Amino acid sequence: MSKKKAHIIRSSCKGCHECVELCPSEAISFEDGGACIDPDRCTGCGSCVTICRFDAIVLRT
Ligand code: SF4
Ligand code: SF4
């Protein structure tokens, strides 16, 4: 079974940067006005899903 990772829903991301600051694995960068997640660094901790006020991040396999 593959582990869940965070994914950005680009159409919902408002560019607030909060998830970028928060991620303990430094897996989230900011590109072209929106957040971008490196799946190789993401541990699936879910912190970014909780902090995003715009429901722009989901955990999925
Ligand atoms: S917290 Fe949500 S809205 Fe803010 S940059 Fe991250 S994904 Fe975008
Ligand atoms: S799930 Fe955790 S490790 Fe993955 S991008 Fe979000 S905060 Fe970072």
Short description:
By secondary structure, this protein is an alpha+beta fold.
What global shape is seen?
globular
User: Rg to the nearest angstrom?
Assistant: 10 Å
Instruction: Give the name of the CATH architecture.
Output: 2-Layer Sandwich
What is the helix/strand order?
EHEEHE
Tell me the number of helical segments per DSSP (H or I, 4 or more residues long): 2
Instruction: Give the ligands present.
Output: iron/sulfur cluster
Q: How large a portion of the residues is in β-strands, by DSSP E?
A: 25-35%
- What is the C-level CATH assignment? Alpha Beta
The number of strands is 4
Our measurement of the CA-to-CA distance between the termini, rounded to an integer number of angstroms, reads 9 Å
The share of residues in helices is 10-25%
Total of domains: 1
Could you list the spans in which at least 5 consecutive residues all have pLDDT below 50? Answer: none
Give the overall average pLDDT.
96
Q: Characterize the biggest β-sheet.
A: 2 strands, antiparallel
Class by SSE composition: alpha+beta
Which fold name corresponds to the CATH topology? Answer: Alpha-Beta Plaits
